[in-house]
Design brief:
The protein is α+β, with helices and mostly antiparallel strands. It is about 45% helix and about 10% strand. The chain is rod-shaped.
């Protein structure tokens, strides 16, 4: 039984109805309290970027950003803000959130940039290699003699 057949029988669906689903991200940027006024300055700076939406949050030290993972990443946005002199919240919680978000976005970008054809046909490569490999389960008996009882 092929793997795809087993997945279909199990009710699993590995294909998304929309290609590249989940590429639009909404993230929160948190800033330190000092220096004062940096959230407003960051808001003005980020608004100028094409393809990036910025909104203020009820929290006065945070901004919401929306972007496509194909154009931006959270890591690139935060690195650009740090290089521009903004002080981001660097608590343990935010370090953990950043590490998870960076990893997920990097993995998603890598998978989106990988050629789809190779992923779908990777099992055929192993099947062909197995057919070429000498192994001991080959039966030289003709089929009519195998079925004779």
């Amino acid at each position: 039984m092929r793997r795809e057949t087993a997945y279909k029988l199990a009710g699993r669906q590995h294909e998304h109805t929309v290609s590249a689903a989940g590429i639009h991200k909404e993230r929160e940027l948190r800033f330190k309290a000092l220096p004062p006024g940096q959230v407003e300055a960051a808001y003005r700076s980020l608004r100028m970027l094409k393809g990036l939406q910025v909104e203020c949050r009820p929290n006065p030290l945070a901004l919401t950003v929306r972007y496509s993972v194909l154009e931006y990443s959270m890591e690139s946005i935060e690195n650009a803000l740090r290089e521009a002199g903004f002080a981001l919240d660097n608590t343990l919680y935010m370090k953990l959130v950043r590490a998870l978000v960076y990893f997920c976005e990097e993995t998603q970008r890598h998978n989106l940039e990988s050629p789809e054809r190779l992923i779908k046909k990777s099992n055929e490569v192993y099947i062909q290699a197995w057919d070429q490999h000498p192994h001991g389960d080959h039966d030289d008996t003709p089929p009519e003699l195998r079925e004779y009882k």
